[in-house]
């Protein structure tokens, strides 16, 4: 019995010793790990470095963990403080990068590509991040963009004598704006040939004096078109005035004729009354039937004459009235025809001013109008609305290799194909150059992706042939969905970024960019 107890005690002691050894080994591993970890944190904060060094020494010495606890708690407070400082660092880094990027964006005359890169970068900078390190690639990129801008500015400064280089970018922008304006001037029918000539001249590289000439010609067309419109409106108003004057004259003369007749009628009525009175008076005085017969017959002849005269007057009045009414009706008919022609002309002009002359699909002005409307609908019904930008790939090559008229034909065919393959509620416009913009109401991005890919494939399969060469042409799409936080500009910019990504990814692509 005593032996058993001793054995059990020995076993318990052995187990206890094994447990203690395990604890000790684990404590050593943990102490080493904490030591290494504390070394890795070195350099973040001096106070923290000192505390961690002390902790390492105590751990190496094997100091009792309980004694170390207050020290560990104080260090942990220190770490919390550092953490909030770290968060503040992230925020200030993000803010700093965003400010620097926006400042660069405000620079005038930035090349298009650089502006796009910058917009893309600012989008990335706006994303939340857990560490300051995550911003380092953005910082590098921003520094590169700053370098590029400085170089571009330097180049401009160096080329003082070369006006074409100095104003190259501005000229290109003016030329694009002028092309858009010309597209909206489609209503100047009489100047269509001249407009087309200016539009084609804007496609090549323009020296500044040629651009100015194009501007002056366009202004000339606008002025003569306004003059023509003014003259036509004046002509219509004069005709209207004429017609109203003649109607007024007819009414006045018919009124005065009718007053005349009324006066005559009054006199006749009085005459008839008098004749009747007289007849009754003399008939009382008649002494014989023969005398009465004679008197009545006389008076009846006089009364019948007066009545006939009265009837003639009435007929005259009716005829006069019919004549006046007839001439008024004719004038009003003429006026109605003129007003109809004028209204039709205005409606046609309205339609043409919203249509792109080359592709015959809506133009940018029409898009702006429709976009506002669709956004209002979206705000009311909250049904999904997608915005898509499409751009023909390497379009410049088509112009350069086969001429501008081949380029024009390509644009027409592509516009037609896109339009034909949209639903009636979708909307497409030529946004400018080789760029198209589309609106897809009540469409989710997932469904849109399929439809855009089908469109993309359809365009890729069009058998274009120039100078007997088969030329495959592709198109890239950038799409986004309108959200609660969006303005019309921000959704457009996102679609533009998606399009840019599609180009960067090799073209002939559909890229969707939902709001982050
Ligand atoms: N024929 C024709 N060309 C146009 C018209 N409007 C713009 N362009 C031309 O379209 C070309 C657009 O070229 P870029 O902006 O360099 O783009 P891209 O060659 O299509 O290349 P990526 O878009 O990068 O794939 C320019 O050469 C313009 O002159 C037009 O109405 N008719």
UniProtKB/TrEMBL annotation:
Pfam families: DGCcoil, GGDEF. It comes from Rheinheimera pacifica. PROSITE patterns: GGDEF (PS50887). It comes from the Bacteria. This is diguanylate cyclase. PANTHER family: DIGUANYLATE CYCLASE DGCM-RELATED (PTHR45138:SF9), REGULATORY COMPONENTS OF SENSORY TRANSDUCTION SYSTEM (PTHR45138). Its EC number is 2.7.7.65. InterPro entries: DGCcoil, Diguanylate_Cyclase, GGDEF_dom, Nucleotide_cyclase, Rev_trsase/Diguanyl_cyclase. GO terms for biological process: cell adhesion involved in single-species biofilm formation; negative regulation of bacterial-type flagellum-dependent cell motility. GO terms for molecular function: diguanylate cyclase activity. It catalyses: 2 GTP = 3',3'-c-di-GMP + 2 diphosphate. Residues 383-515 form the GGDEF domain. It is an enzyme of class 2 (transferase).
């Amino acid at each position: 019995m005593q032996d058993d107890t001793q054995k059990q005690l020995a076993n318990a002691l052995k187990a206890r010793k094994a447990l203690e050894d395990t604890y000790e080994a684990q404590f050593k591993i943990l102490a080493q790990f904490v030591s290494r970890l504390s070394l890795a944190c070195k350099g973040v904060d001096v106070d923290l470095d000192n505390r961690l060094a002390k902790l390492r020494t105590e751990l190496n010495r094997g100091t009792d963990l309980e004694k170390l606890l207050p020290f560990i708690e104080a260090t942990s407070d220190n770490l919390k403080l550092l953490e909030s400082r770290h968060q503040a660092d992230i925020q200030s880094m993000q803010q700093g990068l965003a400010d620097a990027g926006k400042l660069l964006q405000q620079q005038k005359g930035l090349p298009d590509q650089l502006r796009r890169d910058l917009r893309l970068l600012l989008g990335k900078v706006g994303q939340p991040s857990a560490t300051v390190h995550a911003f380092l690639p953005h910082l590098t990129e921003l520094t590169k963009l700053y370098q590029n801008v400085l170089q571009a500015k330097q180049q401009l400064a160096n080329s003082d004598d070369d006006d074409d280089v100095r104003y190259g970018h501005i000229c290109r922008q003016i030329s694009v704006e002028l092309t858009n304006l010309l597209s909206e001037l489609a209503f100047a029918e009489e100047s269509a040939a001249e407009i087309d000539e200016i539009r084609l001249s804007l496609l090549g590289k323009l020296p500044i004096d040629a651009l100015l000439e194009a501007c002056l010609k366009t202004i000339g067309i606008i002025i003569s078109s306004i003059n023509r419109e003014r003259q036509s409106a004046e002509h219509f108003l004069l005709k209207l005035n004429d017609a109203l004057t003649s109607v007024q004259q007819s009414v006045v003369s018919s009124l005065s004729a009718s007053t005349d007749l009324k006066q005559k009628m009054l006199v006749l009525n009085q005459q008839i009354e008098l004749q009747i009175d007289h007849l009754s008076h003399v008939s009382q005085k008649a002494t014989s039937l023969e005398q009465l017969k004679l008197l009545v017959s006389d008076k009846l002849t006089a009364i019948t004459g007066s009545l006939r005269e009265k009837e003639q007057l009435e007929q005259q009045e009716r005829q006069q009235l019919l004549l006046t009414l007839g001439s008024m009706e004719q004038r009003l008919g003429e006026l109605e025809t003129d007003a109809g022609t004028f209204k039709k002309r205005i409606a046609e002009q309205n339609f043409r001013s919203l249509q792109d002359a080359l592709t015959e699909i809506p133009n940018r002005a029409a898009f702006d109008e429709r976009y506002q409307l669709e956004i209002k609908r979206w705000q009311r019904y909250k049904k999904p609305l997608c915005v898509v930008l499409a751009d023909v790939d390497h379009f410049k090559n088509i112009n350069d290799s086969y001429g501008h008229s081949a380029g024009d034909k390509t644009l027409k065919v592509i516009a037609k194909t896109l339009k034909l393959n949209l639903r009636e509620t979708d909307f497409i416009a030529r946004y400018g150059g080789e760029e198209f913009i589309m609106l897809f109401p009540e469409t989710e991005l997932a469904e849109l992706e399929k439809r855009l890919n089908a469109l993309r494939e359809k365009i890729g399969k069009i058998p274009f042939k120039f100078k007997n060469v088969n030329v495959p042409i592709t198109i890239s799409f950038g799409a986004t969905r309108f959200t609660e936080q969006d303005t019309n500009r921000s959704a457009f910019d996102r679609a533009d970024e998606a399009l840019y990504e599609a180009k960067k990814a090799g073209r002939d692509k559909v890229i969707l960019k939902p709001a982050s």
